[in-house]
Amino acid sequence: MGGVGRLYGVCMTPKIKTIELSRAIKRKLEKNSMSQRQAAFECGVSSSTLSRIISAKGLPDFENIAKVCDWLNMPYANFLEATEDCVVFYEDQDKLEIIVALINGDENLAPEDRRKLIDIFIAAYDGFARVQNAATKV
After folding, report:
1. Which of the residues 5, 7, 11, 117 could staple to 75 if both were Cys, CB 3.0 to 4.6 A apart?
2. What is the pTM of this model?
């Protein structure tokens, strides 16, 4: 189980905490005595995009939100609503754990089908990992 490093989130249908994101941006603008235009330039987004994020009107694409989160030096996952189909994880966490959690959270599958898919995935993963490990030893 992980717990160190940057925190990430993956959602099938992500919901952003727009108010919290807006507040974080406003705090940084105030702290650094910075204009929205300056901040937009530093983020790599347009001034109008940053303005929409700050006013919490509409939802810009996730690439722009990620750029703003990088500028804030805050993980994207901090601004994800906790929904049933979200998985939040640390960068050093076992990737197999993350994939299993994502499959378990998929409501399009019946519980018994999730278990079967997880078993198949783990068997395939283990097989490929053994092949890769054997190839690197040669």
Report:
1. 7
2. 0.56
